[in-house]
Amino acid sequence: MDSTGLLIELTRRYTEPHRRYHDLRHIADMLCKGGPLSLSDEQVMAIWYHDAIYVPGSKTNEADSAQLAVEQLTAIGWDADRVKVVEQVVLDTCGHVPSIEESKKVLDLDLSTLGGTWESYERNGRNIREEFANVGEKDWNAGRGAWLEGMISRERLFWTAWGEPLETEARANLQRDLELLRAGQ
């Protein structure tokens, strides 16, 4: 596989029929927003790989995606140190806490939709719910509630000067979502 084949393969993955939010639009959104952030090649490839393997409900999506990145980037001749950066950034998207500096921009881009308008936040939530169509409402609400509470309780959601202005709106959206969930709406 060469670089072109790699991007075609990743595009195929992001257009799998079960994807509604974690799809090619999500990657395009991150790449477009990341344009002014002077992303490194490693950060760009981490964006491409961070949801490359996406099975709704799986606890290993990020680890599986990181392993795929290691295998494919190594196969096309990337230096081991660069591959390691991509791998770590992808792994950091699991908890959205950076373990290396290179993760910060990617994590902020990944969560940036939390800080959008309520309408876009709500649409993204519906799309994620569609990805979990096989999960019953009670289990979905329990999992979603726990996720919302976990995000709200974090000291910070964003790690860069670019992401900091999104913090207030993201927290408002998360809180509103949790309140609606608790109210049964």
How many runs of DSSP E, i.e. beta strands? 0
Q: What fraction of the residues are assigned to beta strands by DSSP? A: under 5%
CATH level 3 topology: Hypothetical protein af1432
* N-to-C order of helices and strands: HHHHHHHHH
- In the CATH scheme, the class would be Mainly Alpha
* Backbone structural class: mainly alpha
User: Helical segment tally?
Assistant: 9
User: What form results from the Cα inertia axes?
Assistant: globular
Q: How many distinct domains?
A: 1
Helix content: 55-70%
Low-confidence stretches: none
By CATH, the architecture is named: Orthogonal Bundle
Mean pLDDT: 97
The first-to-last residue Cα distance is: 48 Å
If you compute it from the alpha carbons, what radius of gyration comes out, rounded to the nearest whole angstrom? 16 Å
Please summarize the sheet with the most strands.
none
